[in-house]
Amino acid sequence: MSEPKPPTPTPGDTYKGWLFKWTNYIKGYQRRWFVLSNGLLSYYRTQAEMGHTCRGTINLATANIAVEDSCNFVISNGGAQTYHLKASSEVERQRWITALELAKAKAVRMQAESDDSGDDCPAVPPTSGQGGGCRNSEVQSTLRTLSSKVEDLTTCNDLIVKHGSALQRSLSELEGIRVGADMGEKIRQVTERATLFRITSNAMINACRDFLSLAQNHSKRWQKALQTERDQRIRLEETLEQLAKQHNHLERAFRGATVLPSSFSNPTLGSKGGVTGKGDASDEDDDNEFFDAMEDPAEFITVPADPKYHRRSGSNVSGLSSEIGMDDQSVNFDELSLASNPESPQPLELEPVRQRRTRIPDKPNYYLNLWSIMKNCIGKELSKIPMPVNFNEPLSMLQRLSEDLEYYELLDKAAKCQNSLEQMCYVAAFTVSSYSTTVHRTGKPFNPLLGETFELDRLRECGYRSLCEQVSHHPPAAAHHAVSEKGWTLRQEIALASKFRGKYLSIMPLGSIQCLFDKSNNHYSWKKVTTTVHNIIVGKLWIDQSGEIDVVNHKTGDRCHLKFAPYSYFSRDVPRKVTGVVTDKDGKAHYVLSGTWDEKMEFSRIMQSSKGENGTEGKQRTVYQTLKAKEIWRKNPLPDGAETMYFFSTLALTLNETEDGVAPTDSRRRPDQRLMEDGRWDEANAEKQRLEEKQRTARREREREAVKAASSPEEADVQETGTEASEVSDESAHPDNYQAQWFEKIDDPVSGDTFHVYKGGYWEAKDQGSWDMCPDIF
To answer: According to the UniProt entry, which residue ranges have a biased composition of type Basic and acidic residues (predicted)?
Structure first.
């Protein structure tokens, strides 16, 4: 099939077309799509990549263009970049050469005009005062000096041309003269003109040297000043963002500490005019907080949607924003219904919110020979290896599991959504946010003892509370249940499988996580990805997350496929990258998610999709036309001095804070963990060994009771039935045949998973102060 004939290039046009680019001696010339625009020559593997992945760009203002033969030509900018290109024909090559030369001339001219206009602008704003005026006058003086040097160079150039021409004429006359009386006169003229040419050339060289030296000196100063201005701008932006977040948190704290008037206690009294007050405006601000545009949505081939979609959705506002606005209108109705719900405890009077701690004792610097301990652990299950607290952080695995709720606001917003696909975006962002606290957390959490619990009661501050319990010891498994006044429930059971491979440690979470929303009855489930700790023996420890997650809505069939890209030294992508696509039950894509699991996530609505050209692996990739992306989640900054406090987040600092009324099995009461937090590591190691031995003794006691029960007359009668006997005997003899205190194992008919769910009773026992049923594990 013949390709359309490209237009004849003109100085102001953007020129595009296919060229063959030399890659290496193995692959030779490869077909690439080149785009010439604004003095820049860029190339892509395919036309579809123009929207997101540029393979290389060269600035023609400083480039040299050389023709090798009838079809080949070379573009180089002094050694840093060199493109060996080949056109399909000599005519095509000439079109490209013409376009490149025109673009280069225009780029040089525009660069000169840009420099001139930049020189006319003041170096600092007028409000900078007297210091700015001095700097401006200094710049003007430097510019005048440079201008005079340029005039000197121009004069020297004119003289060189003049004397060079005269010298050339004299040499020509000298060649044609006959040997005679005029020989001496002609030689004298040639010598004189050669001397003038040498003097002028030396002056030119000196003037060039002075100009170059002056330009280099001031260029360094200007670059330094420019970098200083950029750093100041970045600091101001970060400060402004921090102030905006603090302002938002203060608004939330104020709303959380405010009791609704009695007239709002009945949702039937709220009219359309009555529910549109100051609180609604604040909630709307919460839903649209920090929704910045995504600059480079990678991983997926995405291009801007047709302008007709933007006009249909509003000026620079996606259809998703209108959906969020619809959800905001129903915010107060949800809150009023929660207020009238008898299962949601509400404060009868205004009480001050508890001030949580913001610091813990600094981590002591104890030396430990790591290899002496780890060399005997290669290939073993990490949970079965006795480890000193030097490798730990002063939190248990139950508390680390509760840290998944740090960004509970995402689930609050998801509960307000009327659109299940939009709700899926928030749930997917919540799954990614749970990994943000792990980026610097290289310490190992304490393995919970069997029967250990941890409660996180944030009902008054954040509207939720959660409970964790260690329901199995081998394999170690923990059950977690969290419920919110905003209408969502989170439950999970996670068992960890870990292997030490010498250079790295792999942690594979087993089990599933489920999230249920009361209003829509949507039921979501997903699993966790693999965590890898690198440089165990040599080098600085660092953590990576890799794998894929499928978030499934079992009610509607919607699905979000998330991919956590593993770190690669040779990859051009940003590290810790996460991408995802939200699809409905028919497989149609509606939203694209992109970001990093340690910083932020963004999502954009898909308006149209089509099949693109084959990728590098021969697979046909989909091209999505999307609206402008919006930020859905951003990581909270770490508290000051976090590097000396195990890189704990603001929430993590409060997890081990002592509280009255918690169960005697709560992780806060664990003595070895408390001693480690206080910096008494030697005592913590001794206490840890005592607790582990106590747990082994309790396990042996359970084994003896199981054997005794299996040998009783009743069990003997059961053994005669054959199959039933083996089942009862196997179950009774299982070392971890432990009945959880607050959870029970069920088969979920919706997801098909078997896991422990909360059976109730804990918070009632706490209100009554009755903990007689709790085992003595500490």
So the answer is: 666-707
